[in-house]
Amino acid sequence: MISFIFVLYNNQIAMNIINRRNFLRTSLLGGLAVTYGSKAGAFVPSNSFDPNAAQVALTTGSNRADMVFRALQPFSKQISQAIGSKLVVLKPNNVSINIPLAATHADTLEGILEFLKSINKLHNVVIAESAGGGSTLEGFSNYGYNRLADKYPVKLVDLDQEKFELLYVFDEKDFSPHAMRVSSMLLSPDSYLVSVARMKTHDRVLATLSLKNIVLGAPIKDLGFAWGPNRKPGAKNDKPIAHGGGYRGINYNLYALAERLHPDLAIIDGFEGMEGNGPNSGTPVDHRVCLAGTDWLAADRVGIELMGIDFAKIGYLTYCAHAGMGVADLNRIEIIGERIADHRKTYKLNDNLDRQLIWMTPPPPLS
Description:
Layout: E1 6-9, E2 12-15, H1 20-36, E3 54-60, H2 64-72, H3 76-83, E4 87-92, H4 106-118, E5 125-129, H5 136-142, H6 146-151, E6 154-158, E7 164-171, E8 176-183, H7 184-187, E9 191-201, E10 207-208, H8 210-215, H9 239-242, H10 247-258, E11 265-275, E12 283-293, H11 296-306, H12 315-322, E13 333-337, H13 353-356
Parallel strand pairs: 3-13, 4-5, 4-9, 5-6, 9-11
Antiparallel strand pairs: 1-2, 3-12, 7-8, 9-10, 11-12
Helix pairs in contact: 2-4, 10-12
């Protein structure tokens, strides 16, 4: 099946077959909105707490499984009702199959499985991923996920071997749409999508949390694809297509794809975060925090705050906030549990930070 991405910007729907002029306009508007605010997306602080505010649970501790279980408990009834009879898809972040610091920890997944067991929703659950490079199932084995399949009635799924749909995304190098294979399981309205992300800095969009784990995990690759000499001849990987050819392109594509590819439940494991040259080559941060919430943007917003990063510098999340995809105003986010101020750390950012921030500057005028 071939689908098109429809994106919402300033309350107008436009098909995502984008020409250069339209992209310049959206980039310019996004940059101006960050600098000056906009009627559609300005964050307006209030003196009284908004009764319609989003909720994000923040827990700390010395045990990953316990931390995530406690973070999910305030949402038990809401999660149970939302799951209904849907397939529960736990989407870890395995950008690499052999770098534990870059991947979702098995203990975090176990805490989620125990929570699902406690609300009687463990009968229709999968752990599904398309690893960034190499065999997804090999990565599952490397990270100890097989023991979870032995202990719980959960299936381990390689999305590269499942059905896919075609979506078209933007590339800033040629200002043209490009076809990309995307997991049908992650697109399906019959899936309850749980992003089990790890708190990390990033080399293209400053930070990767719950949304990016879903969006850039959804494009699939051929079996036999691997980075380096182990790649089978002709094996292709569609994940680079989503990166949009540059720092502007990846921020825009993350925003545009978020309408169809976003978590129903966001879980962010910051027990041991990654700073510096993430998402693969960074160094550990002993942070001991965990976040959970049913508003993925609110969860990512709190995660960015805990990492000590200026939210206005995160392009794709800023775009999503101005499009009203969730709550990004801290004044409208109720924190359940610990206080942000007691657990905020300043993560060292990637060495190429200056280049990443080019999204904030509109491209040169058309000649």
